[in-house]
Amino acid sequence: MSGQADNSGEATTADMADPEFVRWLFAQESRFLAGVARLEQLPAFDLPEVAFAGRSNVGKSSLLNALTNRKALARTSHTPGRTRQINFFDLGGRLILVDLPGYGYAQAPKTDIRQWTRLTRDYLRGRPTLRRVCLLIDARRGVQESDREVMAELDAAAVSYQIVLTKADKVSTAELDECVKSIERLRKAHVALHPSVRATSAHKDRGIAELRAEIAALATDGRRG
Prior knowledge:
The chain is about 30% helix and about 20% strand. By secondary structure, it is α/β, with parallel strands linked by helices. The chain has a single domain (about 5-85, about 110-170, about 195-220), classed as P-loop containing nucleotide triphosphate hydrolases (Rossmann fold), CATH 3.40.50. Strands 1-3-4-2-5-6-7 form a 7-stranded mixed sheet, with helices on both faces. Strand 6 (about 160-165), helix 6 (about 175-185) and strand 7 (about 200) form a beta-alpha-beta unit. Helix 4 runs parallel beside helix 5.
């Protein structure tokens, strides 16, 4: 994979946590805190939150498992729409990782799909502790219309979001670079879009270390006082 797809945009070392802290943080226990199916059930946490959003079956749960070095922290499935609630995970008492229901196509009743979609978007618009959304995009398909709708809502809510390409091992280097370029062309129209695009593969451990470093930069580092 080319250097462009590895670390495109304008991300600098200021966006990355100290390597020692990154190793420490992701070696800590990842603990399930709560699963929420309705907005009024949302718990209040004091820690910063990083949420993982994307179309159904884009690979959110697989990426979370890879980031935390766990095989089953988040449940994975080949059936779109398996994640049907917002799941919160504590990472070492420094950060909350949030696995959101997928939007778009799902093998579930339409009323359920509308409920998950409304819950997810209400959370994304109104969560004060939300530091960043990792918006997952399948590298084979690029940004879809449903992704653009979420991006527009995050822009309007002034919620910082970063595009993370998944399944990068399924495309060629040229295809991956073109996907990154197409995302870069969207940047002027999306004011809350983070400059860095990360290309990852949960199964090949590709891009995982770099994404960990960016996520860790958003955590509360209690060791530093």
